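Module 6 notes. Inverse folding takes a fixed backbone as the condition and produces residue identities as the prediction. Think of it as a translation problem where the source language is geometry and the target language is the twenty amino acids. Below is one complete input and output pair. Work through it position by position during the lab.
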């Protein structure tokens, strides 16, 4: 199978390259392909003749999107449409990566795949619009994979920040009023590889199982690294004002994933236990 990956220089992209190692992989980082450039997308994908495209390129700086909505729309909406048009022209199956931020966080139980989206932030709105653009441009051959709280060995992420701060500060104040599912990028990449083999279109929620808050996530990082978890103190989102609003609850239900016969994702804490030594290196 010939697989083309956009955003291959990011943390998910790096693990996608590993997960598709036995296949013919064309890995395109931003320097190789600006997805916001329609002509470049059509040309690059046409020349590559991929069977599957995993579209992981995106502008993921949530607060940055709030201050630069034009870039958010170009990268996350126009980019998705461009890649999807190119996929249709090449008869390729498209897997586009999306986010839990397409929901407003008012739910009290995991969001189903068919739950109405209601994003609060510019980032969330751009990802929701990008989903629609991709599915409309490549109908019947597009899968949307929503995930959440992604961390890995490449690039910047919450786990790396906490490991750094643990060595700099005696105590850390972390918000305890936002609930989600931390997801290891390598586990997510492996699930995407399984989906690419099945080529099943639709919307899929793919996260590590279970849920916690950022406070609980941080305590787990401390515990698994042999540090004193009592150094982590709970606080509220109000104490950390950010330009973009965050959903208070963004746990994603995976009923469709299970019903389709895909292997359920393991618990987030089990994934974190395996991931931490790699990330800490």
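Target side of the pair, the amino acids:
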């Amino acid at each position: 199978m010939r697989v083309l990956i956009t955003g291959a220089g990011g943390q998910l992209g790096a693990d996608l390259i590993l997960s598709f190692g036995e296949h013919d992989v064309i890995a395109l980082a931003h320097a190789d392909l600006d997805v916001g450039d329609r002509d470049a997308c059509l040309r690059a994908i046409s020349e590559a003749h991929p069977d599957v495209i995993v579209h992981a390129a995106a502008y993921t700086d949530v607060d940055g999107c709030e201050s630069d909505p034009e870039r958010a729309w170009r990268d996350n909406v126009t980019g998705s449409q461009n890649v999807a048009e190119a996929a249709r022209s090449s008869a390729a199956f498209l897997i586009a990566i999306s986010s839990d931020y397409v929901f407003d966080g008012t739910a009290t139980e995991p969001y189903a795949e068919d739950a109405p989206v209601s994003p609060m932030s510019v980032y969330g709105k751009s990802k929701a619009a990008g989903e629609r653009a991709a599915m409309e441009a490549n109908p019947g051959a597009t899968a949307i994979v929503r995930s959440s709280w992604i961390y890995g060995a490449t690039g910047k992420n919450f786990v790396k920040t906490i490991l750094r701060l643990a060595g700099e500060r005696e105590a850390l104040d972390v918000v305890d009023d936002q609930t989600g599912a931390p997801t290891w990028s390598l586990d997510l990449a492996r699930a995407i590889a399984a989906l690419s083999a099945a080529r099943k279109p639709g919307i899929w929620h793919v996260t590590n199982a279970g849920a916690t808050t950022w406070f609980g996530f941080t305590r787990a990082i401390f515990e698994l690294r042999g540090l004193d978890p009592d150094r982590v103190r709970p606080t509220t989102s109000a104490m950390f004002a950010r330009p973009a609003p965050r959903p208070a609850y963004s746990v994603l239900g995976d009923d469709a994933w299970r019903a389709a016969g895909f292997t359920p994702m393991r618990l987030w804490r089990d994934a974190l236990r395996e991931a931490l030594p790699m990330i800490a290196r």
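Reference fact for the lab report: The chain has ten helices and twelve strands.
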